[in-house]
Structure formats: C-alpha cells, structure tokens
Design brief:
With 497 residues, the chain is of the alpha/beta class. The protein has twelve helices and 20 strands. It folds into three domains: 258 residues, Rossmann fold (3-Layer(aba) Sandwich), CATH 3.40.50.620; 65 residues, Glutamyl-tRNA Synthetase, domain 2 (Orthogonal Bundle); 114 residues, Ribosomal Protein L25, Chain P (Beta Barrel), CATH 2.40.240.10. The N terminus is likely disordered.
Length: 497
Amino acid sequence: MEEATTRSNFVWEAVEQDLKDGRYTQVHTRFPPEPNGYMHIGHCKALITDFLTAEKFGGKCNLRFDDTNPVKEDVEYVDSIKRDIRWLGFDWALERYASDYFDQLYDWAVVLIKKGLAYVDDQTQEEIRLTRGTVSEPGKESPWRNRSVEENLDLFERMKKGEFADGEKVLRAKIDMAHPNMLFRDPIMYRILHAEHHRTGNKWCIYPMYDYAHGQCDSIERITHSICTLEFDVHRPLYDWFIQALDIYPSHQYEFARLNLTYTMMSKRRLLKLVQEGAVMGWDDPRMPTICALRRKGYTPASVRNFAEMVGVAKRDNVIDLGKLEFCVREDLNKVAERRMAVLNPLKVVITNYPEGKTELFTAINNPEDESAGTRQVPFSREIYIERDDFMEVPPKKYYRLSPGTEVRLRYSYLIRCEEVVKDAEGNITELRCTYDPESGNGSSSDGRRVKGVIHWVSAAEAVEAEIRLFNPLFTKENPDDVKEGQTWEDLSLIHI
C-alpha cells in the first residue's frame, strides 16, 4: 500500500495547509461508525481515508462509536466493525464511544441553556416539522421558545430524571427560525428515549442528536480533522456553531464524496430490511456490499484498500462501476493466489489411444506471477473432464477451443484432437472421444505444430467433488432505485435470488 500513502488528494492538501499555517501542530482523525448495522464498502472508503490521513501525517486515528440511539444499536455490530477494521489492516489509537461523554454533553447543554442558546420545547415531532418552514419561507417560533433560563434548566433536569414520556419534550438550540440553512432553525439537541443502552444501561433516558454530539465529541478528543462524506457539508456551519458557542477545542470538519457502486445499495437501513425479511442469507451474504460479505466471497484486504485508492477522494458524488472493485480483487489474487484447475460444468473426454490404467504426473505452476510459490504435480489419465463451454459442435469462426476435428492443448499436458461426439437419445452430448499426441507432453508436438487453444481439465479418476457457489450482483439494475412506476427497490423481482 505504499502507493496509497503517496497519492495526494484535496483533503490531504488541506491538512498540509493547516499544518503549514500553524492551525494544528499534529493530525488526529477519527472513524465514527454508528453501531446499528454491519460495515459496508461505503463505510470502508471513509475508514481508509480517516486512517491513511493519520498515517500519512504521522498522527493518530481514533475509533469512536456514535452510540446515541439505543433503539437501533447492538454489541453485535460493535464487534463486527472492530473485526472488519482489523481485517483491513488498521488499528486505532483510542477506542471511544459517544456514550463515554454523555455526562459532559449534558453539562454543556446546561451551559447553552444558561447562555440563552437552548430551550425545552413541548411541541411534538410533527409540530416541529410543520413549523420549520421551507427553503423559501421562514419557520415559526415555538410557543415555548422564550421560556426563562430557570424554567428550561428545571425542565431539562426533569427530562434527565425520566419524568416525561418519549416524545413529550425535546431540547432545542435557540438560533434563528428564519435562517436560510434550515439546519439552523432551532435544531433538536436532545430527545427522550426510555430505552436500555448497550453500554450505559438505564442510566439515561435522554440522548443527544448527531448534530449536537458529533462536534463536541470531536472536540473532547481534540480531533483536528473530522473527515465526513459530502452529505454533511451543510451540517458544517452548525458543527462550528456549537463549538464556538461553547468556546471549546476547535475541531474542523472536511467533506469528501461518498462511495456509490453500481448494482449495489449503501443504505444500512435498507440492507437491514433485506436481512430481516430473508431476501438475503444474512449480513455476510456474498451479494451484500458489507465487508464481512466481501471477505466471505474471497476478497482480500489489499484488494479493498487498492480499490479505495483507485477511486480516490473526490469532491463530487459519483457512481463507480462494480467492475472496478472486481478488477482490484483479480489484480491482487493474480499476485498472491495459488492456481488450481477445476471444472464447473463437466464434459467427459475419453482419450482412446491412451493406455488404460495408466496415470502419469505433470508439473503445474502454482502461481505464474510468483516463482516462490513453486509447483505441484497434476495426475493425468485416459479419462478426463473438461468444461462443457470449452467444446462446440458447430463452432463460429476464430473459435480456438475444442470442436470436432480440431486440436487443443490440455494445460500443462498433451495435445488432444476430437474424433467423435457421443450423444444420448435426446441428442445431448454426453462424451467426447479424442486422441492425443504422445510426443506433445513437454509443450511441443511430434511435428512442431502449434495450437492456439489451451483449456483446463481434471483427471476423472483423481477428481474431487466440490461445491462451487456463483453469485450475481445483489440487484439486477445498475441503480436499484431506477424502477418502473409503482415499484420500489423493495420489489424482490429486482434482486438476484
């Protein structure tokens, strides 16, 4: 991964400028997943960016779980995320949780109330939504917006003590209901959730919202470069507002384009629905874009990291062809994987002029790109299997595999010629009768002739049965949301089963 650490991007250029200007003296990043699902290739792109940024500038990267919604979170997801990060070859400086800072976040919320910058609102979620206004129209102030500091402090403490039901009250920042950035229209800071938390148990029944908690957690950890995906760029002014209002360590947010793949969906909520409804075999179904699924499918850590490097860190959202990810795994496996011959759809071949009962061994290369991988011995006998797709009875022009009267080389072995095609009563090809050139086992032939076709094979006597699973992409369309009128992405007809 040396190349990945040397290829620059606009985030790294910004970091370099920050260091040059003396804004920061060291680099400290964080990867902040929410433990409400398994990590997928999109998260992986963000993860790699966070860790490599710290690595490039000699800094540190924390792993911080954004565990502020106990209803959707689980230890299972925490463990899976840590396992995936280590599989990719990274390790974190500090393991932290937003819940580590619940006390501090509460105290800072009290500070904002005392400054007149936060208030308890009795409106329902629906009422808040309806009074927020639109892009062209200002919102309406809550009837409870001008409560006294004393009343707000009392109500907020009572919220903490559990005196109110879920949704009965919220704590909102008091900013500007006419602000052109709608996120500034008195955003919710805390909501009431009487739910057991996987780390704090039942200590809390109020939980901070992302826009309030995230920047403050960054500040507590003295994160210098809070790297997020592009959908959070409109959140950055609010991120800065909370930090400035509290006068705390000035972490700064930087955004890059999220990763989107063809034939793939990156929404954890939607992926969870596929799992829960049994449309897939689980989070590690090889059709899923999760890291555990890629690992099960045979992807290597290097291939995923190289893919992230190939895609790069962009400023604009785009959709990457799934083929690029597949290219990266092929490139890596070509370098590191030992080769074996296998036949998935076997067609029996009898070599009529080869002695019955005879078996000989041929030397096969384990990896043509890695001499140190050595060689292996492959048994050859009178009866072998080839791929059914490597034979055509009536071939088109420039067809270089086996057909009646033509000759191919069996990889690492002899030249064979098809002499006869055997069929069953229904006309299905069941067997080929071939002859071999006894002088061609060393890669040459008896008269110096050459053939263009080389096919793989296995000896029938020594062949071992194996279960091979072939998986199509998860969705049949490049864009799963591109459906006919009346359909949604949830229509199972869109999914390869």
